[in-house]
Design goal:
Helix content is 64%, strand content 0%. The chain is built from five helices and no strands.
Length: 144
Amino acid sequence: MTPDSYFIIFLALSILFHMAIPLVRLIPFPWNLFGIVLIIGGIIMTLITNSALLKNRTSIQPFETPDVLLTSGLFKLSRNPLYLGMAIAFVGVVVTIGSLSPFIFPIIFVIIINRVIIPFEENKLEMVFGDKYLDYKTKTRRWI
């Protein structure tokens, strides 16, 4: 499965859990509106990252072989700005929803991305770019 698939499935589950078993209202109005800021920030980060990948004509898909190693822009701050943007937007959604039960799903999303998708991508990047990638990896954190 792709990161986008995990994102959509877990986002849907978050909304369903909120509707079915909201438990307690963790973040009341108006504080829950801060989630909108996180959603917008995460979407902007994701769009900027996608734009950089497309501009440099390298793959956006994690299971394809990359053509270019990006180390500037948002990639200077995080080796995975696309996933970071998705995670920020996801947290924004559950903050906006405000109930307790959906909060488990962004955590599960980040764990899967961190333990399944990113290691696969990192191995591929190391195979394709070798020492250049290893040097970048030592200078730039995985998330933030």
